[in-house]
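Field: COMPLEX_INPUT
Field: COMPONENT_COUNT = two
Field: RESIDUE_TOTAL = 539
Field: MODE = joint
Values follow.
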Amino acid sequence: MVEEKIIYQGAEAKIVLSEYLARKVIQKRRLHKRYRIKEIDEKLISTRTKEEAKLMAAARRQGVAVPIIYDVDLKQGIITMEYLDGSRIKDIFNSLKDEERKKLCYKIGESIAKLHNGDIIHGDITTSNMILYEDKIHFIDFGLGEINSEVEAKGVDLHLLMEAIASTHARYIDSFNYVMLGYQDFYKGDINEIERKIDDIIRRGRYR
Amino acid sequence: MIVLGIEGTAHTFGVGIVEDENSYCNVLANAMVTYMPEKGGIHPREAANYHAEHAAEVISKALSQSNLSMNDIDLVSFSRGPGLGPCLRTAATAARALAATYSKPIIGVNHCVAHLEIGRGVIRECEDPVLLYTSGANTQVIAFAEGKYRVFGETLDIGIGNCLDKFGRIVGLPFPSGPIIEKLALKGKRYLPLPYSVKGMDIAFSGLLTAAEQYYRKGEDIEDICYSIQETTFAALVEVTERAMAHTEKREVLLGGGVAANKRLREMVEIMAKDRGADFFVPPKELCVDNGAMIAWLGLLMYKSGIRMKIEDTTIDQRFRTDMVEVTWRG
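Field: COMPLEX_OUTPUT
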């Protein structure tokens, strides 16, 4: 039996390294909140767990790598999924050779385009939410995601990655352009509309 | 340094006088009047007329409360925005007239930032909080990050106070409806499911308002509806506040705005803070609602950090955003 280990504790959930049917797994366990009444607490936890599992399944159908889901417990709010023994893109990004980084960014763009082709909005696309495992970029944490076909939602999704690159990988700020190259080649909708929307969002210049 | 501040963004016309004492805020006076519409919501022009009629009287009242005269005042500050144009112009005009007549320097300040700074100013332990600012028109989660006060979450449609007042109007409660809804909610027993709309760090209330109205038209118990409205909207507010705290890694939470008077909201924020091992702060009620003292205090902080304005710089800005303010007074 693997000893359980909390990998990350956020405001809404904790990520635990655990064991399931003799396999090393990751469990996302949503946290109960004492400040809200039971009716609201239980409903939020079960619907969000369900939504997240559905989004992960939808992403897989679009050909985007995500951890395999082994079990979903709506009552407890636990998603049990494959443990990816790889590296976070955030941790390897800055040490890659230029050519490798460009290639990686192109692939990130390709994956985001595939998500958006299925109207899947990830909601928190940062390099900490991507894991390179068995040569594929796996997307994790769909907790803020939704199904949405609007250009606005897709623009915001991409803009978030742009900001994440600017803050976490400031030296390689041009990387976002390579992400957009991959996106362009695989996005099935109107790419100009998306690019205009990103410019729009930059001009709006809101917080974060 | 002694500063007189004039607030006038919406219903309230307030004049406060403060001084600094070992870099904390000492409130010497905090006078105010509040415009109450006869029916319906706020009418900006009517509110502004009301403010104009009462301006001189509230200024005199603040001076007499503090036993000071205009000669003792070192600076006049006022709320530049955000707020309703006619109200902002009235407060700004009063401030300019005072400054010009008595040859005092003048500074225009951001209303939302003032709500946060007054908490830090009067509560010694409160140093670097995440502010949950809930009033009629404004609902924002604000924290200091990278040299500015940034909005980490806010309403996408109406403010929480506005949501409560609108529901109050539909069911025939007088303005402001928040305190009455709070009382009714205490007797509510049954939770009626309402839309819970948190998108990332932002919140929306209009769908919930419609659903609550439908419960009322169907004849559901008003006490149960009030209970359900409070539980749902407050849970959403606390959730985005907690997310901002986790994101910014801050260990203090501060309440501000008129809705901060609600005991249930306070209780929920306090539980959240406790479970995170964070500190919870709320200023006295008269400093939570819109007031002149907080405007005076922010004016003092800005002036002391070297900011100066000429009369021609003191234009109002109805859409003055929190993150537009250059924060020169914090390290």
